[in-house]
Amino acid sequence: MEACYVCFDACLAEEHVGMMAECIRLDRLCADVCEFAVKSIQSNSPFLGQICQLCADICEACGNECKKHDHEHCQKCAKSCFRCAVLCRKMAS
Question: Hey, what CATH class is 2-92 in?
Answer without folding.
Answer: mainly alpha
